[in-house]
Design a protein that fits this description.
Alpha-Beta Plaits; 3 helices; globular
């Protein structure tokens, strides 16, 4: 089985942290309801409180593509753009094997 993993980091100015956190909570709650979403979460970086890590697991690329067409992802993208992240780095991984460590 192939799974899609998204992992990345967003960093905001301290004045934007609260708004970024609010947007992250909303998008995470809405996305977890989507078909094909295995895991979706934003996590505060323990070394930099203004950075947030994102981690997602999707059953397929088709499910991720459908996610990108939702109203909540459009709102999230607009909010993040307006907040002007200082850093944004998000990557997509295609995984064909998963093992417990």
């Amino acid at each position: 089985m192939i799974m899609i993993v998204i992992s990345g980091c967003f960093r905001f100015a301290p004045a934007q942290r609260a708004a970024a956190l609010s947007a992250a909570l909303v998008i995470a709650a809405e996305t977890r309801k989507e078909e094909g979403c295995i895991t979706y979460g934003f996590f505060a970086d323990v070394e930099d409180e203004n950075s947030f890590r994102i981690f997602e697991e999707w059953q397929s690329q088709a499910h991720l593509d459908a996610h990108f067409q939702t109203a909540h992802i459009a709102r999230f993208r607009a909010t993040v753009a307006a907040l002007g992240p200082l850093h944004r780095n998000v990557s997509r991984y295609v995984v064909d094997e998963v093992a417990t460590l």
